[in-house]
Structures are given as C-alpha cells and as structure tokens.
Amino acid sequence: MVDTIKPSSIPISRRDSFNTRDTRTRDLKPFHSGDIKILLLENVSAMAVDILKKAGYQVEFHTKALDKDALIEKIKDVHAVGLRSKTKLTEEVLSHANKLLTIGCFCIGTNQVDLSYAASRGICVFNSPFSNSRSVAELIIAEVILLARQLGDRSREMHNGVWNKVSKSCYEIRGKTLGIIGYGHIGTQLGVLAESLGMHVI
Q1: CB atoms within 10 A of CB 166
Q2: Which residues contact 157 (CB under 8 A, 6 or more apart)?
Q3: Rounded CA gap, 50 and 34, in Å?
Q4: DSSP 53-86
Q5: Which of 152, 149, 145 is nearest to 194 (CA)?
Q6: Can you tell me the distance from the alpha carbon of 63 to that of 42, in angstroms, rounded to the nearest whole number?
Q7: Is the pLDDT of residue 1 over 90?
Q8: CA-CA distance, 26 to 122, in Å (whole number)?
Q9: I need a surface site. Which of 27, 83, 90, 119 has the fewest CB within 10 A?
Q10: Which one, of 3, 20, 8, 15, lies nearest residue 120 by Cα?
C-alpha cells in the first residue's frame, strides 16, 4: 500500500505562496473609482485622504488602529487598506476581506500583515521603506552629540538649579569614529550625515 500525501498538507514557503491561489481569488477587471472603498487607519496623512477623495474614491478614515472585531467588520467590503504598525492583519482578519485588493503599510516593515496568506489570496502588500529613514538617522546624530557633550547630565543639573560649566570629558564629534552595524536605508543615511560632520564611518 502506497501512502499518499495531500498537497494541502505540505507546508509552502513564502516564495511559493505567491503562486498558490485559493478559489476565492478575484480576477482583475476595469473599475470606476467611485466603486472603490478605501480604509485608512492610524492617522495617515490628511493630504492622502484629500487626494483620494478628490479622485472619486470612497474613503473611510480613522485616527487610531481598530480592534480585531471592528477591523473584521470594516474589512469585509473594502478594496484597499492603509495602515501603520499597530494594526494587525492576521489570517483570521484577512479571511473576511472578500473584496480586498491591496494593503499599504505606511511604515518600514510589513510584519503586521500575514504575507503568506495575503499572497495566497492575491492581495498585494507594499510598504514605505524610506518613510522615516532620514528621521531616524538625524535622531541618532542628535543623540551622538548629546552623549559627546554630556547634555543629559547638564540638563538634569540645570533642572536642579546647578550651573556646572564644565568641559572635561566633553568632545566634538568631528574626527571621531562611528561604527554602523547594518548598512541599509537608515545606515546609509546615517553614514552620509556623520561624514558630513567630519566623522570617520566604519
């Protein structure tokens, strides 16, 4: 007797999931913008809301993330969802998305979305990898200067009424070496800023 293995019982990789579509997948067809419903969560840009509404889309806007039950109810008849990092689009939630075509993650990552399940449903997921890279890089530079000049200590002393004018162990960052572990979008921006301030980057 030969054992048989059901294809559905074999785990599929994330890459393979893009070629695996369930029976509920919809074929794309021409549409009128007035027929498309978009759900925007977590206080995404008001400019985006205005642009989409002027283009004729139906837009529902929420300043915060929705809980699971509310999200399941809202996602049933929308064609696109825009979110940040707090909203969790799990398989359970996405299984109720009968018309969903795309998910926009307006942040660096996409870990808040079940990518394999979305792919199996033919739902396109995209992110904004450059959305806050510069902001993070600038914050790191600010913190490097803060530490080099002991600004945290001086601020605390000033709030306690102590004027401690001291330069010992306070340094300019020019000529100092900055080591960057990971040279992605943020790392490359940080390197540019650091070198422009005269730092050596490794």
Answers
A1: 10
A2: 163, 164
A3: 14
A4: HHTT-EEEE-SSPPPHHHHHHHHTT-SEEEE-SS
A5: 145
A6: 5
A7: no
A8: 8
A9: 27
A10: 20
Q: What angle do CA 97, 103, 108 make, to 5 degrees?
A: 145
Residues 97-151: tens digit of each pLDDT: 999 999 999 988 899 999 999 999 999 999 988 878 899 999 999 999 999 999 9
Higher pLDDT, 24 or 156: 156
Q: What is the per-residue pLDDT for 166? A: 84
The structure tokens listed for 185 are 């979008």
Q: How far apart, in Å, do the first and last CA atoms of the chain sit?
A: 63
Residue 202 corresponds to which tokens in the numbers above?
Answer: 């490794």
Task: Answer whether 87's CB lies under 8 Å from 41's CB.
Answer: yes
Contact yes or no for 194/143 (Cβ under 8 A):
no
* pTM greater than 0.70 (yes/no): no
Distance CA 28, CA 107 (A): 27
What whole-number distance in Å separates Cα of residue 75 and Cα of residue 123? 13
